[in-house]
Amino acid sequence: MTDKEIFMRRALELAAGSVAAGGGPFGSVVVRDGRVVAEGCNRVTLACDPTAHGEVEAIRAACRSLGVFRLDGCELYTSCEPCPMCLGAAYWAGIERIYYAATRDDAARAGFDDSLIYDEIPLAPDRRRVPAVRLELADAAGPFRLWSEKEDKTAY
């Protein structure tokens, strides 16, 4: 068995363990330089947190473990193709490659259908099922100006 298969098997074990513990069927492993730096499984219902997906949990744990907010040089092994939120989190974290086992279609057949979100993303914000309406306030971009002017900021 290759290292990639070992890491993916671990993600699948985490997913199965999550189901046994009352969580959702998703598990993830963050790997750097051929070693696991963090693991995570779906804790949405257990933690009463809709953002506690396996990938997000693993990314958070990896960042804490490594003491960084960018996971440069890291790969994400996940039991299922990431949902839009988890994909965004992987991009923001700087994950360099994502490996997944089950597809979004497999997830949809089990009741985890993200197609609505994928369909909503290209729509204008005010045309989405959950409309986003801009409130035009004076100096709404003020915090960005402050950020741009701040000399001792940590860029990300």
Please render the helix and strand layout as text.
Blueprint: H1 3-20, E1 27-32, E2 35-41, H2 44-47, H3 54-66, E3 74-80, H4 84-93, E4 97-102, H5 104-109, H6 115-120, H7 142-149
Parallel strand pairs: 3-4
Antiparallel strand pairs: 1-2, 1-3
Helix pairs in contact: 3-4
Secondary-structure element pattern, one letter each? HEEHHEHEHHH
Helix fraction bin: 40-55%
User: Low-confidence runs (pLDDT<50, min 5 residues)?
Assistant: none
Output the structural class. alpha+beta
| Mass-distribution shape | globular
Radius of gyration: 18 Å
Strand count, sense and closure of the main sheet? 4 strands, mixed
Instruction: Work out the strand percent.
Output: 15-25%
The average pLDDT value, as a whole number, equals: 97
Give the strand tally. Answer: 4
Number of helices: 7
**What is the end-to-end distance?**
37 Å
Q: What key attributes describe this structure?
A:
156 residues; alpha+beta; four-stranded mixed β-sheet; 4 strands
Can you walk through the features of this model?
- With 156 residues, the chain is an alpha+beta fold.
- 42% of the residues lie in helices and 17% in strands.
- It contains 7 helices and 4 strands; from the N terminus they run αββααβαβααα.
- The chain has a 4-stranded mixed β-sheet.
- β3 (74-80), α4 (84-93) and β4 form a beta-alpha-beta unit.
- α3 runs parallel beside α4.
- The longest helix is centred in the first third of the chain and has 18 residues, at 3-20.
- The N and C termini lie far apart (37 Å).
